[in-house]
């Protein structure tokens, strides 16, 4: 009878410390397992050597980095969206980076400007580069800079930025880019990053917003192509911090909510008496965009059609006052 009362349900609290210890140990063991798994994937990815592809007017360098979005602990078991499962191996284990280096690149004053492009949902760095003609447009801008695409969620409907949302990881990615440029004798050992531009389409908004807050380096320009779905608080903070910068948000009525968020952000700018320029896409040109400031551009075209034909990425790059031109 004594034993029955001792182990009865009214005395469950006597086992609470043991249960807490067991749960804590289980969580610790799982985290340790995830970290080991993440390191294993990163180590395996970084074994790949740099590959070089010659294109008209430049070269594309492919390499891997430990400081891309993935692999990352919260996606080691994959991710489910709209009842569809996206596994680790196919979608969250790729640490690839590609760089577009113009033939006419000439490093000045021991610094190099860098443009980072982040792709949207159900894309990867290769499909985005090809479909949106990013390399062709970037080279045609004749900017004395390089274009970098770092892989995020590959061929998956996911805006999560993984490791690049964490403090100073983006700074390490920038250093990996410089390291690769040095190893390919494109820049000197003393060369440092110049102005850094972040650009992206659709679901890229989140990683761009987090980098603007946590990246560990100054971001001088942000160009969003129908990508303002959320995180306006982070973009507002960045705008208030970076006085000499340029922010372009081009949006459509077919982006699934980017028009509503864009209008709300413009209303917030008005309330805070922060000046910005609004224009329809048909009215924009290089002269209009060539100054630092805040630009909202409305397009009547479809969500996937605003980057090229006409070549708006080329226009944004060519008009950027933060990127040095080749002739300079």
Summarize the structure.
This protein is of the alpha/beta class. 35% of the residues lie in helices and 21% in strands. The chain has helices at residues 2-6, 16-45, 88-91, 125-131, 134-140, 169-183, 205-214, 232-241, 258-271, 286-289, 312-319, and strands at residues 51-55, 58-64, 79-81, 84-86, 96-102, 111-118, 145-150, 192-201, 221-225, 246-251, 277-280, 293-298.
Write up what this structure looks like.
This protein is an alpha/beta fold and 328 residues long. It has a single domain, classed as Rossmann fold, CATH 3.40.50. 35% of the residues lie in helices and 21% in strands. β11, α10 (286-289) and β12 form a beta-alpha-beta unit. The longest helix is centred in the first third of the chain and has 30 residues, at 16-45.
Total of DSSP H or I helical runs spanning 4+ residues: 11
Strand content: 15-25%
Can you give the mean pLDDT?
89
Structural class: alpha/beta
Adjacency order of strands in the biggest sheet: 1-2-5-7-6-8-9-10-12-11
Cα-atom radius of gyration: 23 Å
Question: What secondary-structure arrangement, pairings included, does this model have?
Answer:
Blueprint: H1 2-6, H2 16-45, E1 51-55, E2 58-64, E3 79-81, E4 84-86, H3 88-91, E5 96-102, E6 111-118, H4 125-131, H5 134-140, E7 145-150, H6 169-183, E8 192-201, H7 205-214, E9 221-225, H8 232-241, E10 246-251, H9 258-271, E11 277-280, H10 286-289, E12 293-298, H11 312-319
Helix pairs in contact: 5-11, 7-8
């Amino acid at each position: 009878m004594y034993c029955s009362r001792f182990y009865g349900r009214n005395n469950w609290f006597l086992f609470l410390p043991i249960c807490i210890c067991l749960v804590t140990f289980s969580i610790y063991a799982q985290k340790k397992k995830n970290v080991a798994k993440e390191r294993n994937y990163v180590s395996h990815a970084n074994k790949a050597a740099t590959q070089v592809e010659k294109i008209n007017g430049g070269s594309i360098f492919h390499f891997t980095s430990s400081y891309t979005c993935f692999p990352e602990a919260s996606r080691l078991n994959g991710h489910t969206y709209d009842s569809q499962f996206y596994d680790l191996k196919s979608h969250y284990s790729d640490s690839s980076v590609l760089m577009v280096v113009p033939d006419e690149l000439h490093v000045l004053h021991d610094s190099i400007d860098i443009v980072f492009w982040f792709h949207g949902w159900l894309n990867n760095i290769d499909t985005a580069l090809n479909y949106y003609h990013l390399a062709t447009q970037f080279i045609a801008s004749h900017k004395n800079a390089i274009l970098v695409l770092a892989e995020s969620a590959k061929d998956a409907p996911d805006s999560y930025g993984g490791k690049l949302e964490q403090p100073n990881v983006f700074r390490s990615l920038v250093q990996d880019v410089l390291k690769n440029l040095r190893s390919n004798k494109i820049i000197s050992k003393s060369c440092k990053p110049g102005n850094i531009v972040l650009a992206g389409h659709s679901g890229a908004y989140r990683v761009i917003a987090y980098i603007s807050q946590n990246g560990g380096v100054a971001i001088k320009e942000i160009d969003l192509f129908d990508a303002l779905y959320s995180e306006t608080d982070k973009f507002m903070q960045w705008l208030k911090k970076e006085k000499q910068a340029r922010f372009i948000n081009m949006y459509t009525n077919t982006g699934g909510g980017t028009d509503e968020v864009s209008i709300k952000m413009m209303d917030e700018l008005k309330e805070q008496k922060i000046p910005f320029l609004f224009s329809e896409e048909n009215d924009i040109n290089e002269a209009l965009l060539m100054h630092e400031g805040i630009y909202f551009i409305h397009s009547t075209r479809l969500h996937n059609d605003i980057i090229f034909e006409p070549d708006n990425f080329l226009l944004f790059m060519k008009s950027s006052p933060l990127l040095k031109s080749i002739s300079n």
